[in-house]
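---------- Forwarded message ----------

FYI, see the lytic cellulose monooxygenase (C4-dehydrogenating) record below. Original note from H. follows.
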Amino acid sequence: MSSLLTLTVALATFFTSTLSHYTFPNLLHNGIQYPDYTYIRRTWNYQNYYPLFDLTSPILQCFTNGTYPNPGTLTVSAGDTVGFTVGGRIVHEGPLLFYIAKAGFRQTAGSMTGAGEVWVKINETRPIITDVPAKLELYKWPYYNASEVHIQIPPCLPTGEYLLRVEHIALHIAFNEGDHEFFGACAQLRVVNGGNGVLAPYTSFPGAYRSDEPGLLVDVHRNWVSIFFSIFDSSGVTYIIWER
Ligand SMILES: *[C@@H]1O[C@H](CO)[C@@H](O)[C@H](O)[C@H]1NC(C)=O
Ligand SMILES: *[C@@H]1O[C@H](CO)[C@@H](O)[C@H](O)[C@H]1NC(C)=O
Ligand SMILES: *[C@@H]1O[C@H](CO)[C@@H](O)[C@H](O)[C@H]1NC(C)=O
Ligand SMILES: [Cu+2]
């Protein structure tokens, strides 16, 4: 009896994690879908699709834990659009964000860790609100049920090597502090034909988020009147790259 129970619990856990959670395994560029974890660092959850909860973990940098196979670095032009496939589907309420980090002196996209104040947010997709007051139901999030996500490399981004970090934050039960779920991955890119943009402001992982900030300790099911437009601003990290 107890072994049957264990099996049932194990199966339930398996289905919960793989059916309702997600990864970002394939890079998309110029009509090509690259194989799993090619140009993308293989993430800590590539088999079980688990969410990351711990905002103090260095895993938050690129969603890797320890070693991963060398993914290589893809050459793209500034202004190109790149995408990530979603392993599973994005089935939770929450914003989709993209961050970028430039390789420093004597670093490459392959050698840099993503540690330190090196990250700049380049995009954040919020819910589409047509009625006020509004509950932030699943369908109001533009990436609900998405099987791929896309980002334009800013045309003004300077030439160089970069990590491009995709992040989806699930907020469906974030009314309990700590019950935010983080999913993401980093692509390694060599950006050519760049511009004269200035990256700012910088943040770090861990460090960018606090579990009690208004954007992460939030009931997305209640009736928002006006403050919903600012609930994802609270990390203090806003856009973007300034055109010089
Ligand atoms: C990360 O890897 C270490 C060492 O293998 C392991 O102890 C730890 O549980 C892993 N963390 C997660 C979140 O899987
Ligand atoms: C962010 O991404 C969204 C969705 O792809 C797009 O509509 C928007 O223009 C982007 N914003 C910036 C500042 O690039
Ligand atoms: C998600 O998308 C798939 C494929 O387009 C579709 O078959 C499915 O019905 C969608 N699910 C929901 C809940 O919208
Ligand atoms: Cu979940």
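H. also flagged this: Residues 44, 59, 65-66 surround 2-acetamido-2-deoxy-beta-D-glucopyranose (ligand 1) (CB under 6 Å).
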